[in-house]
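Re: that chain you flagged

S.,

Sorry for the slow reply, it's been a week of failed gels. I finally had a moment to sit down with the sequence you sent. For the record, here it is as I used it:
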Amino acid sequence: MIVEKAGEVLEKHGLCDHCLGRLFARLSRGTNEERGRAIRFVLNMERSAEGLPPMGEPEKCELCGNVFERIPLLVERMKEASSGIEFDTFLVGSRFPTEIHEKEEGIWREFGISTGEPINREFNRELGKAFGLATGKDTSKNPDVVFVVEPYSGEIELQVNPLYVYGRYRKLVRGIPQTPLPGFEDSVASIICRAFSRASDGKCVFKGAGREDVDVRTLGNGRPFIVEIKRPKKRKLDLDAVAREINASGKVEVLNLRFVSPKEAEEVLTKNHRKEYLALVLVEDGVTPEEAGEVARKLRGLEIHQRTPWRVRKARADKVRVRRVHEAEARWLDEKHFELRLVTDGGLYIKELVSGDKGRTKPSVTGLLGKRAWCERLDVLNILDE
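Prediction finished late last night. Pasting the structure tokens below so you have them in one place:
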């Protein structure tokens, strides 16, 4: 049946062994070229017995134009395109002209063939095998680089997949923003990204799991972050060396650096976190130790309804967020100051929890005290996984 069908096809179309074997790709193992050669051999044995001339491979394949002969040249061009790029795994894709796909599908329809394999699938596989043998690299579904090849023009498009690094940062000083802002020489992001960009020779994008104000420190176990490095030329980074360079800034310290997958990176950035804070509260009308302790007692377990703070209304959607205070402890310092240690849901604005933000946050320390209170200083002590 296969040999008979192959004979019918070859009577009308001059196909190379690759394109002949690909018509019956789903029927046996091995390469399409081997399959096509075997089918042609058996067919010609039968034709010889019947006194008919053999059907040899045409000088130029009617379907592919002998494109598989271009593989060695394309391997060299792929090597040139990836020169200077560090990678271990790769994937190959190709762009064949529409007319070739249409002609191939036309042959399938003409002869009722349902066992064929598209030409680009075979070409990608054979080119990938040849490139792997030439370079010692491996193919992968999650590759470091992707080659998109135009087989006839020889053009190569190289896609270098990004690296993702997880870590936690401590912001040790006040007065620097998390991300670059006009008027500030440095930011957490710029200090971290400079080191990663130098190490990888790629473009670094910083993404923090939440943020803190310019005048707020982040201490303790640090805030989770992800660094995405786009088009890295170097992938085998010494993360300990990168950490040492960042930590030498004296402004930012990073912990627990490790490579992660894109999925893990997304989970880090979308995960909910509870926050532990230490706020220095100022009450100009005076506060007693008893009043400070009573505020903390009332805050424990309290549900807070917080409309988007006035100071960030232009950058955040104007809505009411409901968050909870899980823990609260007060330490009286003097007649106008006390410290307030809080553990709250992520997304609760602590400065406004203290001040009340002119009634936009309810309840608030100001409301519970019956006296105007301000957050004079704030530190993030820890960021806790829920």
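What I noticed first: The two ends are 65 Å apart (CA to CA).

Talk soon,
D.
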